[in-house]
Amino acid sequence: MSSVEAKGLSSVEARRMLAEYFELDVRRPSRLHSAILSVAVRMAVTFPDFHFVPFLNLWGLENLRPEDSISHLEDSMSHLEESMSNGGRAMSGESLDRPGRPGGREMSLVERMSRAYVYSLLFHPDEHLETDLENVMASFISKIGYSFSQTSVTLLATRVALSESHGNKIQYAFLIAPDGTEFITPIHTLTQYTNSLTHCTSQTPNSTLTHYTYQTPNNTLNHYTNSLPRNNSLTHNNELPHNNGLCPEEIPERLFNCLLRTTTKGTVRIEAAIPSSQPVSEVFPCTAGYVDHIDRRHHHVHIFDNQSRHFVASHHALPSPVGSPSSVASQSSRGNSNSGVEEILSRWPKEGDFVDFVMVIPKGSSFKSAIINKVYAHENEGSEAFGYRRAKVTFVETERKYCSWELLPSEEPIIETGTTQPSYRKGYISAQILQQANEGREESLPTVGTEIRIIAFLKRGKDGQKRPFVAKVEW
Fold first, then answer.
1. Rounded-to-integer distance, Cα 270 and Cα 252, Å
2. What is the pLDDT of residues 442-461, one digit of tens each?
3. In a 3-state reduction of DSSP, which class is residue 197?
4. What is the torsional sign of CA 29, 32, 37, 38?
5. What is the spatial distance between Cα 430 and Cα 97, in angstroms, rounded to a whole number?
6. 41, 62, 36, 39: which is closest to 53 by C-alpha?
7. Which residues contact 434 (CB under 8 A, 6 or more apart)?
8. pLDDT 10s digits, 167-216
9. CA-CA distance, 239 to 16, in Å (whole number)?
10. Which residue from 216, 280, 381, 400 has the highest number of Cβ atoms inside 10 Å of its Cβ?
């Protein structure tokens, strides 16, 4: 049970009370009817399993009063909202309203309703108002910084950092969009709904708490009340399943569906978020890479792709046999640090392996991170996925057993994409790489003029200069 539920009404209890209200013969529009909408607004931003769109269909947007567009003033009707919401105490739904007030003033009921609607689109993306009402709502939400295109934007959490402000330590999460745009938000934004939501959108139409459909005035209310439990006990059959939430170690390399809002200063920030069920590889681009180095001290895997870009994968981003990319991290956080590290090390690729990985490339930053999808079981498969370049041997040193090469005219030069680094068409193959190419056969060296296939990319040398590095050669 979440802290909100512990302090006030649960989602099921609130909906039962709202359903009982709709059985009353109440004049509409009226102050009472608007007060009921205010209660539902608070429920919508507090409980992900609260279906706000069906409620609006019942409530009727035509019942909005001119007064509902004016900033809320404390009056006697607020006591009704408080008593229904939390026995006279302000609940977290109200505190959630305050950060979103435009211009530093209290939000009007219409503005709070609009905000609740975009929250509902985050929690239940398949639920929408009819087209004409949707157009009306679009004008409402745009006035407070929202847009329909930003109600469920998928972002990838890359890391968590601790910051201190005015003596308070706050943990922030860094997230990135597929286009490289970066966001920073307190981790509370990513975890506040994980205790009350597994995946609302995964519920089937037959689920107790899912969609309410409305066809005629007679079956509208029946369908709403039939979707609620008939007793006062709240069991797991009555509510969406709970989980244990996300600890900070489980946030990196996880996708979140985020509601974005543009502030009055033009800054786009994350207003709310829920974990996404999509695989990262379906949202971010993937490619083949070569594992050049493994830093076991810092638990980093250094990878190069065919465009000479350098990526770093952390232990969070390694393939996990149990499904969750951060399962080992969560074990370590619970005290099994030694066994967790050993499991991490056992699943790491080896230097010289080829991997398929997700590319995470932020705008305006030279640091690129990776999430490894798989290690290619067969080296030839990985080599072909990475991509060979055709070249010819131009020189052979038989005593020191190395050679030089030059790309064929039909091959593109070797460059690092996205930089102004110089391009190369020539380079050397070390004795070590030539020796590896001779494994399983009689040792020999290619002759001058021999056509070869190389796996090559630019790599920084000890002098800081990037030059072609040949990781594999065939002839």
1. 16
2. 778 899 999 999 999 999 98
3. coil
4. positive
5. 64
6. 41
7. 401, 402, 403, 445, 473
8. 888 899 999 999 999 999 999 999 888 755 544 433 333 332 233 322 33
9. 13
10. 280
